[in-house]
Amino acid sequence: MRSARLHRLRHGLILVRRRLRASEAAFIVLAALVGAMAGISTLIQSWLAHGLQHVFYGVTINRLSALASIRHPWRLLALPLGALALVGLNRWLALRGRTPVDVVEANALHGGRIPMFDNLIIGAQTVISNGCGASVGLEAAYAQLGGGLASWLGQKAHLRRADLRTLVGAGAGAGVGAAFGAPLAGAFYAFEIVIGTYSTAAVAPVVAASLLAAALMRWLGPEPWLMAATDNRIITLGDYAAYAVLGLVCALLGIFVMRLVTAAERVMQAITRSSPWRPVLGALLLMPVAWLSPQALSAGHGALHLDLAIKPPVAFLLGVLALKITASVISLASGFRGGLFFASLFLGSLAGQAFGEVANLWGIAIDPNDAALVGMAALSVSIVGGSMTLAMLMLEITHDFALMGVVLTAALVSSAVTREAFGYSFSTWRLHVRGSDIRSPRDIGWLTTLTAGRMMRRDWVAVQSGTSVAGFRQQVPQGSVSKAILVDEQGHYGGVVPMVAAYAATLSPDAVIDEAARLVDRVLTPAMGVRQILETFDEASADELAVVDDKGKVLGVLTEKHARRRYLEEIEADQRRMFGEM
To answer: What is the pLDDT of residue 17?
Structure first.
């Protein structure tokens, strides 16, 4: 009886999986479920982080960064306490030999597969870091857990690679959309930051997830994050030019921040000799910065609204800007977990306000409040990436369509300058520093399967080094193969012998065949990727190369024709996946 029930259950699961793979409507329903899960996880993480800030700093209604001052200096001990918690968690991870995979890396390299354990660890690290006051945001954790829950559910449903990547993007975007109450921004975050491409087949599930997450967050949690905009403005051509300059300034500032984080991380590693106690040193460095201005603490939600309301002088804005950059750099370089999404919004608002105030002093009429909103989008585009994501975010938090023209202008200038001068967003830059080839979230995981070891053929003809030309001709008849591989007694590579060269009339039969060998110093390794393989073929001007191991022994041969055909086949398959044709 029990076995019959289990059989029916398994049969039902198989039918559900088939339905999800075949029906677009069923996939949209699954995405909506993911959106609900992402919204709830965002609410829980926010509640946990703010609960820690309440315990450590006594914050109630106001945000931590909006405090006028830290009245009791002993409360800043929360920073080293949080660092100690991270040290313990990191040491436990080291014992398990694990490095958590973030959502962008998973979608770019692993087809959207993320172990659920990794999501929980990254979420815990981020909540601890933000809760103790480190200058990092929670948005990375929102996206991670939203995308991670989607990955877990998609793997249980045995989704295809393209569908799983779409579902992971939908979950990550839903987490961000829920955080801001901005479903359109969440949807564009999914496309631009996590999936890497716009696809007509993915629009409905991604938007459904983001809409349901934002609606659920509004129902269960706080009101959507809104900002006041200027009334009755008139945007002139001069405003577009001025805000384009602001976009350029924000791009340069964003590149500076990203490079500064990496430089500080290297210095911190050198000072501590990569000690696991590095977060404690970072916490001690953060304490005097936080004492100077609490606005440097946490992500900066409260400080952003406070500064827009009180309209402080330029000197104050630039001072807070410097302190916030310092705090964010120290936090990330010392090992606190989190992102720069909201920190970049706060920094952009400071830079925009200061830009507006200075422009007014020079006789250029710009509203500092508008400049702050434009600066938020422009700096975030430089650091986070995603021009449309930030444009939609500004639209949804201000409900101001008139401002969108200059927001897009500054965002596009910032994006273009960052791509041209730097080439990375902060998330892909961090992966690049670690040695990854990722430059965007677009799926390049299939490239890892196109290695020389997987594409080579093993039916090659070997000839002993030192063989005479006559012996070679007897061993390898003309017309049987196009090339032979020269090897020594241990199987080490000695070159490629083309049949045309071996049977040349000018070659003496008594000569050693080694004289006809070509490409002696040009080989492929089994782990070499297809792009490097094709570059090697171009450099060697060869149509076939040997694949050798690290000891120099020949494993097989690979032709340029086969490598290019496999590369083009995978590109075509990737295009079909992008347009939902497979």
So the answer is: 57
Strands (E), 529-575: 544-548, 554-559
* Superfamily (CATH) of domain 447-571: CBS-domain (3.10.580.10)
Token couple for 307: 């500064």
pLDDT of amino acid 252? 95
Residue-wise burial string across 338-368, b where 16 or more C-beta atoms lie within 10 A, e elsewhere: bbbbbbbbbbbbbbbbbbbbbbeeeeeebbb
Q: What is the tens place of the pLDDT at every residue in 197-254?
A: 787 778 899 999 999 999 998 888 776 666 666 666 777 888 899 999 999 999 999 9
| pLDDT confidence of residue 491 | 83
CB count within 10 Å of CB 512 equals 15
- Note the pLDDT of residue 517: 85
CB of 183 within 8 A of CB of 213?
yes
Tokens of 236: 């002139």
Give the per-residue pLDDT at 264. 93
CATH 1.10.3080.10 holds for 2-220: yes
CB atoms within 10 A of CB 35: 33
Residue 430 region, left (φ>0) first, then alpha (ψ -120 to 50), else beta?
A: alpha
Please determine whether the domains at 237-441 and 447-571 fall in the same fold group of CATH: no
Two tokens, residue 281: 């040193």
Closest CA to 194 of 138, 133, 151: 151
Question: For tokens 């929670």, what's the residue?
Answer: 138
Q: Give the dihedral of Cα atoms 387, 397, 32, 383; nearest 10 deg.
A: 30
- Does residue 396 contact residue 185 with C-beta atoms inside 8 Å? yes
Which segments in the chain show pLDDT lower than 50? 11
Report pLDDT for 385. Answer: 85
CA angle in degrees (0–180, nearest 5) for 333-188-125: 30
Tokens for 304, please give them.
Answer: 């952003």
User: Looking up tokens 């792009």, which residue turns up?
Assistant: 531
Q: Report the residue count for the chain.
A: 582
pLDDT in tens, 259-309: 999 899 989 988 888 788 999 999 999 999 999 999 999 888 888 888 888
Give the amino acid at 129: S
- Cα angle, residue 310 at apex, residues 304 and 311 outer, rounded to 5°: 85
CB atoms within 10 A of CB 8: 10
Q: What is the pLDDT of residue 576?
A: 61
State in Å, rounded, how far the first CA of the chain is from the last one: 40
Closest-CA residue to 176 (of 209, 148, 139): 139
Partnered with residue 485 across adjacent β-strands are 462, 496
Q: 237-441 belongs to which CATH class?
A: mainly alpha
CA angle 426, 53, 221 (to 5 degrees): 80
pLDDT of residue 429: 66
Q: Where are the domains of the chain?
A: 2-220, 237-441, 447-571
